[in-house]
Design brief:
Blueprint lengths: L1 H11 L2 H17 L2 H21 L2 H28 L5 H59 L50
Helix pairs in contact: 2-5
Organism: Streptomyces antnestii
Protein name: Heparin-binding hemagglutinin
């Protein structure tokens, strides 16, 4: 039974979905920047092409060969230094290895905490995004409903009983105004009363 409860709890957790929505929203925001970058590259491209055309291949080859020789000399010097300073004391080597392992565990734990914080921030952003999407979708549905049946009263979904709302005296004289509400969380303990019960 514990496995079933764990599965149910895991599958009913909306945080991964909010994380996906937040990631999609952040990717969309970054994608909006692409046209500006393309225009910038398009403006800079002729100058860069001209610079490449004006360079001498022999100069580039000489610079690359010089850098390769410098890198080879630096690597050789470093290897010689490391091998010359190699500590052969096994006890000291063991302590150093243990210290490095402990540091590695600490760094891994720090990264895990940072990853969790980032995950939660993106999930919160995703939750806000989903709320915004839901609000926009509700507004669009109300607009479509008003366009299809302009004289009909819009249906407002809420947890409040229908009797709590005042009825208009003349339905043709007043047009109802749909109020934008944040989606309310439903609870299983709330009792709903019918208008005839009062």
């Amino acid at each position: 039974m514990a496995i079933t409860e764990d599965l149910r709890k895991t599958l009913s957790n909306p945080t991964p979905l909010y994380f996906a929505a937040g990631t999609a929203e952040l990717a969309y925001q970054q994608a909006k920047k692409v046209p500006g970058l393309v225009e910038q590259l398009r403006a800079e491209a002729p100058a860069r092409f001209e610079a490449v055309r004006n360079t001498d291949p022999k100069e580039v080859q000489e610079k690359a060969a010089g850098r390769a020789k410098e890198a080879q000399a630096a690597i050789q010097a470093k290897v010689t230094e490391v091998l010359g300073n190699l500590d052969t004391d096994l006890k000291k080597f063991g302590e150093t290895a243990q210290d490095l392992a402990l540091r590695g565990v600490g760094v891994a734990a720090e990264y895990a905490v940072k990853a969790r914080e980032t995950y939660e921030k993106v999930a919160e952003h995703g939750e806000e995004t989903v709320r915004a999407w839901r609000g926009e979708a509700a507004e669009e549905i109300l607009e479509v409903a008003e366009a299809v049946e302009p004289d009909a009263e819009p249906v407002v979904v809420a947890d409040e009983p229908a009797a709590a709302k005042p009825a208009p005296a003349d339905a043709s004289a007043k047009k109802p105004v749909a109020a934008k509400k944040a989606p309310a969380k439903k609870t299983t303990t709330a009792k709903k009363t019918s208008p005839s019960a009062k």
